[in-house]
Structures are given as C-alpha cells and as structure tokens.
Design goal:
Double Stranded RNA Binding Domain; 20% strand; Alpha-Beta Plaits; Methane Monooxygenase Hydroxylase, Chain G, domain 1; 366 residues; alpha+beta; 10 helices
Amino acid sequence: MSAAVGQFKELNTTVGNLSRRLAIADLARKVAELEEQTGEAGFWGNPEAAQKVMQEIARLKDRIEPWQKLQARISDALELASLNDPELEGELDAEYADLQSVVDRMSIQALLSGPNDSRDAFLAIHAGAGGTDSQDWAQMLERMYLRWAEDNGYKVEVIERSEGEEAGIKSVTLGIRGNYAYGYLRSEQGVHRLVRLSPFDSASRRHTSFVKVELWPDIQDDIDIEINEKDLRIDTYRAGGAGGQHMQKNDTAVRITHLPTGIVIQCQNERSQAQNRDRAMMILRARLADLERQRHDAELAALKGENVNAEWGNQIRSYVLHPYQLVKDHRTNHETGNTTAVLDGRLNDFMEAFLHMKVDQANNGR
C-alpha cells in the first residue's frame, strides 16, 4: 500500500468517526422522512406547517451535505491514489494538504454537540460600569461581532439598538443566522473588560470599562413555553436610527416586559408594530426557554455539590490596550498580543479554546 493510500485512509477514518459523533447518518434519515412527508396528499394544505417542514429540511441538509461532500472527495482521492501513478503524485499531495485543512476545520463541529449548538443565535450587548467609555466599548464589541459574522459567513439582523448619549451605544440585540451560530458564540457570554487610555478623558488617563454580553439560542417553534398575557407589560414607541421615515413617524417599536422575571425585549427592526410585537414575543419565548435550561443546569450542579454563579457577573475576558497590548480569556487562559486582529473579529481561536475546555470538563465529569 502506497503512502498516499495510507494517508487518505487515515483521513477517511477520521471523518467517519466525526460523522458518527455528529450523528450525520441519523440526520440523513430524518431528512428522508421529512421529504417523504412532502409527497403526502394534503401536505401543502397547511402552508404554515409545510413551510416549517421545508425549513427544517434545509437546516438539516446544511449540516449534512458538507460531510457527505468531504467523504466523496476523500473516496475520489483514494481511488486515484490506488492507481500508484507517479504522474499523480503532486496532485495527490496538494489534495491531501487541502483535505487535511478541511478536516481540521470541520472537526471543530464535533465539539459542538450541545442540543442547541447548531441553531441561530440572539446576541445582546449591554454597556455597564464606565459611563461613556463603557458605551463606546459596547459599540466596539458590536463591530467586533459584526466583523466575525461577516468573515465566517453568518447573516446578521439588528433587532434593537439604543444609542449612547455622547458616544457609542447603550445596548444592541443582534440576530445571527447560520450553522452553529449559537455553539460558537457560547464562548462570548459574560462580562468583557477593556483597559485603555480613555479618548473621553481630557487628561488621557487609563480607564477600565465593562460590557455584558448575553446569548440565547433561536429555538423558534420548538419552544414549549406558555406566556400569560397578564404577566406582560407592552409599550410602544417611535423607532430611532436607520429605518426611514416610515419608522420615524409611527410608534412601530415595541418593548415587552415579562413581569415575573424582569426580562425586557425590545424590537424596532420590522416595518409595523404588529410585526415587531410578534418578533419580540418570539425572542421572549426563546429567553424564557433558555432561562429554564439555566435553572435545570443549576439544579444538576447543586446535586453534584457545586456552587453555581451567575455567568454574566464574572469577568470572562480582558482586552488591555494600555500599558501593553493583550487579550486574555480568563477561563481558558488563551491569549494574544494582536489586539487589533481580535477587535476586527478574529475570534475563532478563542472560541475553539473554549469548546476544547468544555469537552475536557465533560470528559472529566465536571
């Protein structure tokens, strides 16, 4: 057996193991079952239900097809390598290097095994202690996540945005759509600390600012959460910022407060008040479902005898721009001196370090 054949067989084994870990075959069977439903009489009689089935098929295919295409490429390369043709040696070397890179990248998905990791996400940024500096820091983080999403092929919707008094933003809520958006962004939930020379201080003194990042999965119609209308306070107001005259002249924006939990959802991106209300209610259901998941996790941790702290109250990452340049994640100890790259959205190394940490904790029973 040639060395090339051995290399491609090793890749094939790796991809097979990863595919089993991600249950790709089970997902393919699920797609086949759903596609069979689309051929049944009366399927399109309920357009709303039919549309949900079609969306689920598309979502599952987006997860399955990259693995199927990768396995097909490896099979083709194995077939060529088995010919033992010296003239193909350079082509096979190049294909192996490219495939190895693809496998390395896609193997990260195997770490995303949480029940909601493959879903879209809502990410909210809130300025904290630090006044104008904190609001400016919140806008810097917004830009960082928008750059990350753009670089990694995610689509972003600005659901609500509140401008700062002098600079920056008080808060923003982003809808981030794409495969494994929630799984990757889990690493970002918590308090982000910035240390720099303040551009808003006439004496150019060093300031420390804090911003809280919240995250929850967009679980849409899978949410089995009942909301009592008596538990809601619904306010309407005139949308600000981009959106055109239609948004400026009408009270289209909606703010929903869930009184039992104090959760506040604002939505101003849609064209009508009714659309903003529906969108805000969908996000509220997702928040309440995530809150229930957190309570469940806390109960399990308590049974293990562990202390559970509110994650948002813990500093997870520091960004130091003065007197030296360093970004350090305090959970994984991953760090880099290239602060410019991080603030430009180069977050994947931090995200992958967090995923590896979570896998190690799970394997160690923590």
